[in-house]
Amino acid sequence: MAVKVLFLGPLSDLLDTAEISLPAPLSWGQLLDSVPQAVAEQLQGERIHVACQGHVLRDKTALFALDGQEVALLPPVSGG
């Protein structure tokens, strides 16, 4: 039983991988406990959004992902 967690943009550089698999069910606190402290600090910032199964969560701390679900961690997007 696992949840696929995708780290997009600079988050993947910080973690040195674009995806990890974590045990399900997965809460926000468990996610933060499963990544290095530097990554956890970035994830807690206001500008990082969280999507579960393609739906951006209004409150990322309400994350609760089940077996087979995908969580995407979305950093701010820049463009021009």
UniProtKB/TrEMBL annotation:
Task: Return the InterPro entries for the record.
Answer: Beta-grasp_dom_sf, Mopterin_synth/thiamin_S_b, ThiS/MoaD-like
Kindly provide the name given to this protein in its UniProt entry.
Answer: MoaD/ThiS family protein
Q: Name one Pfam family in it.
A: ThiS
